[in-house]
Amino acid sequence: MATTLEVPISLDEPHNHSDDSVVAVHNLRKAFDGHVVLNGINLTVNRGETLAVLGRSGTGKSVLLRLIVGLETPDSGSVRIHGQSLADLSLDGLNAIRMKIGFLFQHAALYDSLTVGENVAFPLDHHRQDLSRSERSGRVNQLLAEVGMEGHLDKMPSDISGGMQKRVGLARALALEPELLLLDEPTAGLDPISSGEIDELVLKLQREHQMASIVVTHDLHSAKTIANRLAILNEGNVVIEGRFEDLEQSEITFVKQFLKQS
Fold it and tell me: Contact 139/124 with Cβ under 8 angstroms?
């Protein structure tokens, strides 16, 4: 597991990293129909580091991921990937950036009509045509082995459990060897044993690939297990950011209530 960073808690200033952070969100604002979802938040994540973003339902956690991957456009502020502002990129440039981002959707979002192997091969077939068919096939087998799903190549998504679908979703997210991994509620809907297995798998993949990761979750135990830092959102703002120990020692009323209820 990556080394836990010593991070001071600051409610007024963004958490600062070096200029070569993989992702940097600055003063990000987003509203829908007049309802402010994100109200000028600042977050950065470096290579090999995992940030967990927590908060109640509807606090903009998933919107944050959609903004980072360019599926939504911010009202103001910026998202930078390796120093490049998404707003400054052409469609081709944005697509090139997206190829460096792996995204595990909340419900795995596998294609029902494709087998497990075909789901994992999908990004390779579309973006790595420089690889031969046998090379792509070998990559699929390697990825499925990494997530403990070897032997399930020809099964349909409907034939495997929710936890296994999450594993396949992770394999697909890793297909293009991303530098940034975005995980949207990776343990949602899973029983405690399956949730623990997904947490251990994420930790294993982090050790092996040293990606930057952002995990959006309402699962405090999972966040504590897999993240170096945690940030809690409320009413569009980052209420606190730091290590789990920092959150535990916080005197902020909302933070104390959130930890107690989680």
Answer: yes
Structural domain includes residue 170: yes
Number of structural domains found in the chain: 1
Question: What pairing do the DSSP bridges indicate for beta strands 50-55 and 35-45?
Answer: unpaired
pTM of the model: 0.86
pLDDT at res. 104: 87
29 sits in which H/E element: strand 23-32
> Number of helices and strands (H, E) in the chain?
9, 10
Which DSSP string corresponds to 51-119? EEEEESTTSSHHHHHHHHTTSS--SEEEEEETTEEGGG--HHHHHHHHTTEEEE-TT----TTS-HHHH
Confidence of residue 205 (pLDDT cuts 50, 70, 90): confident
Q: What is the pLDDT of residues 163-193, one digit of tens each?
A: 899 999 999 999 999 999 999 998 888 888 9
Residues 144 and 132: their CA atoms lie apart, in Å, by 19
**120 Cβ contact partners less than 8 Å away, ≥ 6 residues apart:** 140, 143, 144, 168, 171, 172, 175
Kindly state whether residue 220 falls inside one of the protein's structural domains. Answer: no
Q: Would 7 be classed as within a structural domain?
A: no
- Asked if 123 and 176 count as a contact pair (C-beta separation under 8 A), the reply is yes
| Residue 162 maps to a domain | yes
**Angle made by CA atoms 157, 185, 192, in degrees to the nearest 5:** 80
Q: Which domain holds residue 123?
A: 111-177
